[in-house]
């Protein structure tokens, strides 16, 4: 939805609601991002910020809404002068991000970024089909990468990424799955770890409506299964992670008339079961809505919008409510930066990178083919 085209009354209501959910600074940045998306600079060559001061250890590839409102915002808030390059095929957006978030250079030349030894971490938030390609090139140059979701859009990309990780183990890889680092999800995992046996998980997600001609739906980009569902398939894997899970079986169900409404059941080899339902119909005024119910041993957990968590264990009942929603964005973006720059820290393990990717790729195969599909983990 193009908020810039909506009525003043709608805009005011939306800002007031977002301020309640995300706080003043984040809401302000989301509003600025809407203006950023329409930026129009008449400048074709590399743009240099003459006022730049800093270490410039980071490059951002893809300077759209998420990079502007979240990645660059949190990096710059963490430490000014971290962003050396901003690159986008829309050069105006690269300039706008660089200017507003204190970057050094807006460029369309990826080779320049790859050849600059000062750049230690590359954040990749471009269109989905290009994530793996950009990441592999950076890995081969010894740089660390933070790859936004989806990490890969097909099996070939996944194989190439795994090969690059194996050949260049010093280039740490981090993923844009932020929700595992949200406060309430971590609390839920702590409670679950104290219980025994298989986990039963049920997710209901109401996503943003996206117009039919949006780039997400181009066949090469992987649609909403790879583009969106991967967040919650990864979370299911996080919920069974400490257990001996070797494989799973995936049963799909999809709406015949919509590319954005589907459900999937996943039965893991340890008997854990996940049901994930994704629906995107009208406008969700409060943003993406996410509800999880989970059952393990004596524990019943219920997580609403990463804002409220209810835990029942036998006669004990606990309720947690945050002042603001926390999807773990800040924690995840800063975690990638700090671990990339800390010589003794590690990136994500190749097994985890493979498993979370193969799971969502197999889920896409199951939904597209409307057939039951098996998935083997590493
Ligand atoms: N982790 C999260 O919660 C989260 C949330 C939203 C978006 N994202 C991810 O962030 C990425 C960007 O999403 P967005 O919402 O900002 O989309 P967007 O459409 O606002 O931005 C994408 C940007 O990439 C640029 N681009 C397209 N092709 C490119 C190329 N070949 N090279 C360089 N730049 C190119 C576009 O010009 C655009 O500016 C996507 O991968 C998306 O899935 C993650």
Q: Find the structural class using helix and strand composition.
A: alpha/beta
CATH level 3 topology of the largest domain: Dihydrodipicolinate Reductase, domain 2
Task: Tell me the number of helical segments per DSSP (H or I, 4 or more residues long).
Answer: 11
Strand fraction: 15-25%
CATH level-two architecture of the largest domain? 2-Layer Sandwich
Biggest sheet statistics: 9 strands, mixed
Strand arrangement in the largest pleated sheet: 15-14-13-12-8-11-10-9-16
The first-level CATH class of the largest domain is given as Alpha Beta
Overall radius of gyration: 21 Å
Task: Report the uncertain regions.
Answer: none
Bound molecules: nicotinamide-adenine-dinucleotide
How confident is the prediction overall: mean pLDDT? Answer: 95
Number of strands: 16
CA(first)-CA(last) distance: 40 Å
In short:
The chain has 378 residues and is α/β, with parallel strands linked by helices. It is built from eleven helices and 16 strands. A nine-stranded mixed sheet has the order 15-14-13-12-8-11-10-9-16, covered by helices on one side. Strands 1-4-3-2-5-6-7 form a seven-stranded mixed sheet, sandwiched between helices.
């Amino acid at each position: 939805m193009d908020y810039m085209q909506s009525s003043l009354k709608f805009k005011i209501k939306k800002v007031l609601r977002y301020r309640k959910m995300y706080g003043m600074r984040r809401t302000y940045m989301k509003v600025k991002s809407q203006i950023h998306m329409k930026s129009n600079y008449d400048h074709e060559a590399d743009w240099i910020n003459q006022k730049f001061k800093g270490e410039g250890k980071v490059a951002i590839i893809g300077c759209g809404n998420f990079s502007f409102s979240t990645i660059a915002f949190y990096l710059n808030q963490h430490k000014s002068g971290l962003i050396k390059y901003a690159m986008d095929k829309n050069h105006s957006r690269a300039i706008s991000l660089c200017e507003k978030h204190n970057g050094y250079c807006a460029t369309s030349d990826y080779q320049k970024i790859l050849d600059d030894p000062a750049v230690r971490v590359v954040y990749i938030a471009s269109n989905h089909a290009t994530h793996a390609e950009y990441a592999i090139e950076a890995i081969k140059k010894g740089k660390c990468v933070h790859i936004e979701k989806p990490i890969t859009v097909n099996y070939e990309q996944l194989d190439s990424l795994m090969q690059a990780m194996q050949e260049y183990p010093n280039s740490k890889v981090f993923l844009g799955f932020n929700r595992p680092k949200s406060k309430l999800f971590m609390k839920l995992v702590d409670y679950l770890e104290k219980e025994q046996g298989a986990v039963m998980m049920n997710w209901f997600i109401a996503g943003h409506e996206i117009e039919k001609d949006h780039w997400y739906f181009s066949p090469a980009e992987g649609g909403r299964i790879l583009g969106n569902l991967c967040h919650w398939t990864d979370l299911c894997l996080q919920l069974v992670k400490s257990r001996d899970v070797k494989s799973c079986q995936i049963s799909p169900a999809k709406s015949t008339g919509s590319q954005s409404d589907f459900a999937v059941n996943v039965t893991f080899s340890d008997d854990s079961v996940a049901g994930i339902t994704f629906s995107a119909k009208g406008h969700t005024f409060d943003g993406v809505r996410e509800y999880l119910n989970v059952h393990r041993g004596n524990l019943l957990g219920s997580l609403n919008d990463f804002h409220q968590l209810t835990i029942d264990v036998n006669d004990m009942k606990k309720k947690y409510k945050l002042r603001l929603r926390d999807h773990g964005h800040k924690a995840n973006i800063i975690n990638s930066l700090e671990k990339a720059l800390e010589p003794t820290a590690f990136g994500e393990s190749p097994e985890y990178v493979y498993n979370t990717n193969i799971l969502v790729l197999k889920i896409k195969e199951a939904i597209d083919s409307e057939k039951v599909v098996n998935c083997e983990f590493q």
